[in-house]
Design brief:
By secondary structure, this protein is mainly α. The protein is 69% helix and 0% strand. The radius of gyration is 19 Å and the shape is globular.
């Protein structure tokens, strides 16, 4: 079996992760959740992503999501489970994923041989994911695999996304970055979500953001202009390398050829979805 090239797993993840996330920016999700009585955008996200764990409280979600304000979570959870059970939420989320993928990819792509191939490859990679210390992955791994290939691919992308994400939290803890510091340092690289989006969705105030930035400056990770220092850039690089090591198993299991092909297919689907307006234009950036 050919050896994986450096960062091959990360590149594959970078094609799969946004594909999974299309549903959370989709009007189809809002429509489906409104139909089950959940119409607050924040409650939609919290319930939609956490439902696989069951009717958990805000503390569990704060631990699993890492960078959300507990007080914001507590305003919506566990109340949301009295509106709709986790099972009802999961059914609505899958319907939204179906509608979203058909809309942003088109029926021809959804029914294509390439989609079926991508589903097989992604599910094969997910066979090597591990549950230990990975609550969001483990919860989703207990869900049944949808029969339709496009939904099976979305499900597998979810598994691989949450597996890497759970491992990334371990890396953040090891690096000594608290929830807001993690957000600020990522955004400072130019690759993270914009502060406007993060402050609107994570429940933090501008004062929290500014205080976190000051702590990072005191550690020598940001300069006076809020840009990463050499040490800050090295820390973020180390974080991703640490995450790569924790997330290596699925891609090693799939093998170099399979990873290359899954990345190629995933990028193609992602380009199509992005061109169809799957993501807000101002989602990424420092502003």
């Amino acid at each position: 079996m050919a050896t994986l090239t450096p960062r091959a797993g990360r590149r594959c993840h970078n094609a799969l992760n946004p594909f999974h996330a299309t549903v959370y920016f989709s009007p189809d999700l809002d429509k489906e959740f409104a139909g089950i009585g959940i119409d607050d955008p924040r409650a939609v996200y919290f319930a939609g992503r956490a439902a696989a764990m069951g009717a958990v409280g805000p503390g569990v979600i704060a631990a699993a999501f890492y960078n959300f304000n507990y007080e914001l979570l507590a305003r919506h959870v566990p109340a949301v489970w009295r509106v709709a059970s986790p099972e009802t939420v999961l059914d609505a989320r899958l319907r939204a994923a179906d509608a979203t993928l058909r809309r942003v990819l088109g029926e021809e792509v959804v029914a294509s041989d390439e989609m079926a191939e991508a589903a097989r490859l992604a599910l094969r990679a997910a066979e090597a994911c591990t549950r230990n210390a990975r609550p969001l992955y483990a919860a989703h791994a207990d869900l049944p695999v949808p029969e339709q290939p496009h939904l099976a691919y979305w499900h597998a992308a979810t598994l691989l996304r949450e597996h890497r994400g759970d491992g990334h939290l371990t890396a953040l803890l090891s690096a000594g970055l608290d929830p807001v510091e993690a957000l600020v340092s990522h955004t400072a690289t130019g690759k993270g979500m914009s502060p406007r989006w993060l402050l609107a969705t994570r429940g933090w105030q501008r004062t929290d953001w500014d205080a976190a930035a000051e702590r990072l400056r005191e550690r020598g990770l940001l300069d006076g202009a809020g840009e990463p220092t050499e040490a800050g850039t090295a820390l973020r690089a180390d974080l991703e390398e640490h995450t790569d090591r924790l997330d290596a198993a699925p891609y090693e299991h799939l093998g170099a050829d399979g990873v290359e092909r899954l990345t190629e297919l995933g990028r193609g689907f992602l380009i199509t979805a992005t061109g169809a307006g799957a993501f807000p234009a101002d989602l990424i950036g420092k502003g």
